[in-house]
Amino acid sequence: MTALNVTEQGLHYLMLCLELYMGSTAFLLLYLFALAFLCVKGSRKERRIFLPVSIFLLLMVYNPVAPVLLMRFFDVNSEYYRFFWITPVVILVPYAAVRVFGLPKEAGKKAVVLAMLVLLFILSGNFLYEGGYKRAENVYKMPPELMEVSALIHADADEEYPKAFLEYEYNMQMRQYDPKILLTIDREEYLYATSMNYTEEMIHDSEHPQYRILAALIKYQGVETDEFLSALEQTHTEYVVLSKANPMIAFLKEAGLHEVAQTAERSIYKYDLKEPYVFELVDYTPVY
Amino acid sequence: MQIPVIVLGVIVNFIIYLSFGSFLTRKKGEQLQPLFAVIIGFFAYYSLFFFVCIPFMKLYRPLSYLTRVWVPVVALIVILAAVFHAKSWFDAAKRIFGKVREHPVLFLLLVVIVSLQIFIVTTSYNFTLDASYYVAGVATNVETNMINVYDPFTGAWQDHFEMRYFFATYPVSDAVVCQLTGIPALIQTKSIMAATVIIQTNLVYFLIAKLLFEGKGREQVLMLGFMFLMNLMFITIYTPSLFLFTRTYEGKAIVGNLSVMTVFYLFLLAVKEKKSRLYWLLLFLVCFGSTTVSSTANMLIPAEVSVLYLPHIVMTKRYRDLIPYAVCILPGILLALAFVAYVKGYFVFYTYPVW
Predict the structure, then answer these.
(1) CA torsion, ordered B4, B6, B10, B15, to nearest 10 deg
(2) What is the pLDDT, as a whole number, of residue A183?
(3) Number of folded domains that form chain B
(4) Do A90 and B227 lie within an 8 Å CB cutoff?
(5) CB within 8 Å: A98 and B252
(6) Which residue of A has its CA nearest to B267?
(7) CA distances from B271 to A155, B78, B261, B312, B346 (A)
(8) B202 interfacial to chain A (CB closer than 8 Å)
(9) Contact present, A232 and A271 (Cβ < 8 Å)
(10) Are B339 and B295 in contact, with CB atoms under 8 Å apart?
(11) Rg over CA atoms, chain A
């Protein structure tokens, strides 16, 4: 929840956080109904289990003051929602549903109640695969093309650990599959690039040459060819992998990079480093 | 070819957890509760792994050194468990088969509910950002034969350990398994451990349903069915249900589902019967074990234990339980404070000797 800030939102933070957490689901409301049901129809034991817990949750977690107080000691801005996880929603709501199912004695009525409960659950939430179920194409759960890109880079590279610039999704996935490929851009830098533009000052920042690469290839901002090439040199980036639809492919060619391989949807370009870079694992043997 | 490897990996996991759990949960003269033993065994395994792993990591020893020490430890515990608990395992298996014969339809329904979930997590494709740290971290540790010394995102050497993840040694255990067996990190994390966690979570669900509907098999299975349906529907990017199905390989998915549910189950036991010393030991193990799985547990689990046990202690007027309660929440709080101290610059663990 990076959009929320306890210091800025103060006592409103909790409500905003809760709204984001629940989205359009109604299970917290069902939790309250289930609690009310147990208060009326439940046994003493049931009330002893669920009621004090819920009251304490209200005081400790669902209290608007709680995140403000906690913020004095810990940075809970983006993670306060995890405290909602301790609400026994996944226990109480199904439990109450089964109790409601048990109320009618006749089989016909039970079937109707069961159907209504199932419908209630379905209508109260968002289905996990609302956007469609995507089956993994292989046991690695990686796009086959990414695996092909990895093989092609190694086939071309002289070094054991080649360094590459990849587009967002491949950048986040490549090292899960192939840790021998080093990446130019780390996660935070990429996350910045997906939402923000680079200022002139950032583009010319000699300390962070990766900004220039991201500005040119992801944000399509104007970057001088020389500056782009010096960024590749500084970061030891030998390979640039772009989708064929990326409009910056012409820019890469103009800059002097040459295509060494391609897959169905991606092209792999190579930059010949002026000073070849050999990445070696640190030798720790002198330490022990 | 990989499917038998995945199935075997899951089975081996459960044998290990059962071995660890058998020592801790079986009281003298009482029957072994195998499901409970498997759950406790999971947390015991990662708690013990933590103590073995941390010195190797802190002293920048290779991953292979850790593997060479940890594998015999686990093998010894499994062998000892087989020697001391084989009869109780056999008896437990007989009891389970007896119940299956008694209620074949209910058992079949249970199998269908759990199998569907395993199918979902092991066959679906999900692009999640955090895998670029957790899964790549396992792959990086195996590739470099070091423990958390290289940056999983880029592969670059780091001059200090990232303290957010330092004490959460769960992924290092995956790296040990990958190094030992040659199983790729992606299969170990996203299939073997994902299936393991799904089964474990459903076992806790079942134990909870069993306690809430004692002796009512149909209601227990129905509750499990509703829990499954709810997890399928309780979906926003923040809910534990989403984490369970799409980010099962992550420590925080385990904490948000398995740990939270296990603590609740132990709380239900406390409401039902008087708490023994063993009970508090098991709760402590779950709390501590959770902090070794993910730093998310550092605040979450103490908060849950407080929300559940403080009112219970007040209502039962058993104020002396405040001491074991405090002991249970202590590991999480200490680790959370350690992280704050790191962020404020009070200490740093370098990945090289500083004289």
Answers:
(1) 50
(2) 98
(3) 1
(4) yes
(5) no
(6) A49
(7) 63, 33, 15, 8, 42
(8) no
(9) yes
(10) yes
(11) 27
Q: From CA A241, how far away is CA A178, in angstroms rounded? A: 15
Contact B247/B128 with Cβ under 8 angstroms?
yes
Is B354 domain-assigned?
no
Rg (CA), chain B: 20
CA distance B269 to chain A (A): 11
**Domain boundaries, position B181:** 2-343
Q: How far is A90 from chain B (nearest CA, A)?
A: 6
Name the amino acid, one letter, at A89: V
The ipTM, to two decimals, is 0.95
**Residue ranges of B 275-294 with Cβ closer than 8 A to chain A:** none
If one counts every other C-beta atom within 10 angstroms of the C-beta of residue B64, the result is 15
Cα A211 from chain centre: 22
Write the pLDDT tens digit of every residue in B97-116: 999 999 999 999 999 999 99
Long-range contacts at B210-219 (CB < 8 A, ≥ 24 apart): B211/B265, B211/B268, B211/B269, B211/B272, B212/A95, B212/B268, B213/A98, B217/B103, B217/B106, B218/B106, B219/A98, B219/A101, B219/A102
pLDDT digits (tens, 9 = 90+) for A6-59: 888 888 999 999 999 999 999 999 999 999 999 999 999 999 999 999 999 999
Q: Is residue B172 part of a domain?
A: yes
